Amino acid sequence: MKEIEKLDKDYVLHTYARNYVNFKKGLNATLYDDSNRDYIDFTSGIGVTSVGHGNPRVAKRIFEQASNLLHTSNLYAIEPQALLAKKINELSGYDIRTFFANSGAEANEGAIKIARTYGKTKFEKKRFKIITLENSFHGRTITTVKATGQSSFHQDKFAPYPDGFSFNAIDDVYNAIDDETVAVMIELVQGEGGVFPFPKDKIQELAKFLKQNDILLIVDEVQTGVFRTGEFLASNLYEIEPDIITLAKGLGGGVPIGAVLTKHKDIWGAGDHGSTFGGNYLVTATGLEVLDILEDLKDSGKLDETVIYFSKKLNDIFEANKDIFLSHVGLGLMRGLRVKDADTLGNIIKAAFEQGLMVLKSGNNTLRFLPALTISKSEIDEGFIRLQKAINKIKA
């Protein structure tokens, strides 16, 4: 047994089915283990390391910030926090304010609290119910698990759950709304639910209906945000303007950060919400550097080139292996291949790792790809060579 495996099994609470590789360093979309074996990373830490591993600009910014201040608390103004909020406002194109948390689940909790505050202050009779969509995923806290539109996550061992949540197919949302409904919470591309992008016309129709009926639209962009779909927000791509948006994952490039963006800029006062660590010097300084890098990447056209190149290579794999793949799905660098069955999917992921390629599962039958937005063409080429070798192995 490897030393890391023994340590993990002896001292870490087990909530993941781990692969006991011991990574020691990373360079963009390539990782190296303790034997210096390289792995092409098509996962970016589940969409987190948006500007790659070992990014020198991020490392420099972290060092500079850590050498001066890491944390003072939100009892005092934090310059990089204010600058990051301004940057998010500018990149989004929306007139918003931002609250910073530590994770996507916390951001979604904040969004729910804003919605329920709105439901209390806006209407004579309080509205508190929030509708989500089938196959959605919104987090692992008690409340965000209940908001998740997958019954398998609502385990009895964690019950009882908070009231006021239900999930429906997108076409059934309209009939599910009642006089206690305050918000509808959606992902524009369901990341954990099978890399499923909703049709633009359906989303725009829903957004228009909600606005006409004073019901808030919350868009969970924990995975789709920060240029993952090619634009700063998937909401920009869908040409809608939500009331509340949540971010996390790629915003910090690897440091833990979440954010709640809202048009309702004065809905809270001092003491209504808070976070000890949220938005401290370290994470917001890092977030600023990440956004500067990605804005440059987008403005130069390199991000769009990478999206087109990755999509073409993925489609080539699909066309060459239609005996096991059903379709090619996704947007930007949030992509998936539908696999004919769950066993084949599991075998591909295992064989790919043996070939030195890291890929992900989504839903019951989707092979998911979330590479760093800075991934190079050579890393894309090598990754797909290794994927084809893995597929050949399981076909043999």
Characterise the protein shown here.
This protein has 396 residues and is α/β, with parallel strands linked by helices. The protein is 39% helix and 18% strand. It contains 13 helices and 17 strands. It has helices spanning 3-11, 44-47, 56-66, 79-92, 104-121, 142-147, 173-176, 200-212, 234-237, 281-299, 302-320, 342-354, 377-395; strands spanning 23-27, 30-33, 38-41, 97-101, 129-133, 165-168, 181-186, 189-190, 196-197, 216-220, 244-247, 258-262, 325-331, 334-339, 357-358, 360-362, 366-369. The strands form 4 sheets. It has a 7-stranded mixed sheet, with helices on both faces. Strands 1-2-3-15 form a 4-stranded mixed sheet. The protein has a 4-stranded antiparallel sheet with strand order 13-14-17-16. Helix 4 (79-92) runs parallel beside helix 10 (281-299), helix 11 runs parallel beside helix 13 (377-395) and helix 12 crosses helix 13 (377-395). The radius of gyration is 21 Å and the shape is globular. The mean pLDDT is 97.
Q: What is the topological layout?
A:
Elements: H1 3-11, E1 23-27, E2 30-33, E3 38-41, H2 44-47, H3 56-66, H4 79-92, E4 97-101, H5 104-121, E5 129-133, H6 142-147, E6 165-168, H7 173-176, E7 181-186, E8 189-190, E9 196-197, H8 200-212, E10 216-220, H9 234-237, E11 244-247, E12 258-262, H10 281-299, H11 302-320, E13 325-331, E14 334-339, H12 342-354, E15 357-358, E16 360-362, E17 366-369, H13 377-395
Parallel strand pairs: 3-15, 5-6, 5-7, 7-10, 10-11
Antiparallel strand pairs: 1-2, 2-3, 4-12, 8-9, 11-12, 13-14, 14-17, 16-17
Helix pairs in contact: 3-10, 4-10, 11-13, 12-13
